[in-house]
């Protein structure tokens, strides 16, 4: 190739490469503006159908979803901070890496959904008060969850078969990187058959919770209030019971792993 052609082609090649690098790698089915307009115009109870739609990465912060249907929707990485998704249908939806600061999922149906590593606070350790999402009365049956939900409200939620455990169980990194529901309100929550391995429930309210058959291996239940909870058939192997309140707990006689539970003698009966 002549030298003048080579020199002329270099800028074109560079611009082409830049265009490829700058081009968006993903396009959602709607823009944030289109979603906003549809929800704004929708009458109360209209339940707009976004089922199966790709809404990945959209900025939907602060929106009222008005009981929208979002089953099997892809909301990966979407900004849902301050949004109201109460009573929405989110069955089998993909909610991984969403911004869920101050988001309301009260009474929503999230059965079978995936909620991995959401942003739930403005601080790195998730300790900011009043920022956690709310799941009051929500259906989280068999949801795959992992992340920080400190101070979250799950009271009365259906969480049977939910998985909050880390993907691996090496026994080391999970102590540092685990699902955290410290100070969360889990009162009256159905956690039967849930995998809660390594989960931190420090100072959580688990009054009247159904933990029958739950896996609580290496869970941190220190200072948690389990008054009236059902622990029938639960696995408490190596769980930390330091100052845990066990008044009125049922099913302890059928729970396994109590002999290896840490600080059993410091629990409050």
Q: Main traits of this protein?
A:
about 15% helix; elongated; little secondary structure; two-stranded parallel sheet; about 270 residues; disordered N terminus; 3 helices; about 0% strand
Give a verbal description of the structure:
The protein is low in regular secondary structure. Helix content is 13%, strand content 2%. The chain has helices spanning 3-22, 32-41, 173-176, and strands at 114-116, 144-146. The chain has a two-stranded parallel sheet. The longest helix has 20 residues, at 3-22. The model is unreliable at 1-23 and 171-175 (pLDDT under 50).
Characterize this entry briefly.
It contains three helices and two strands, in the order H-H-E-E-H.
Question: How would you summarize the topology of this molecule?
Answer:
Layout: H1 3-22, H2 32-41, E1 114-116, E2 144-146, H3 173-176
Parallel strand pairs: 1-2
Order of helices and strands: HHEEH
Helix/strand/pairing category: little secondary structure
Q: Mean pLDDT, rounded to whole units?
A: 89
Largest sheet: 2 strands, parallel
Q: How large a portion of the residues is in β-strands, by DSSP E?
A: under 5%
Output the radius of gyration.
23 Å
The strand order across the widest sheet is 1-2
Fraction in helix: 10-25%
Shape: elongated
Q: Which parts are unreliable, with pLDDT below 50 for 5 consecutive residues or more?
A: 1-23, 171-175
The number of E-state strands comes to: 2
**How many alpha or pi helices?**
3
Q: What distance lies between the first and last C-alpha atoms, to the nearest angstrom? A: 86 Å
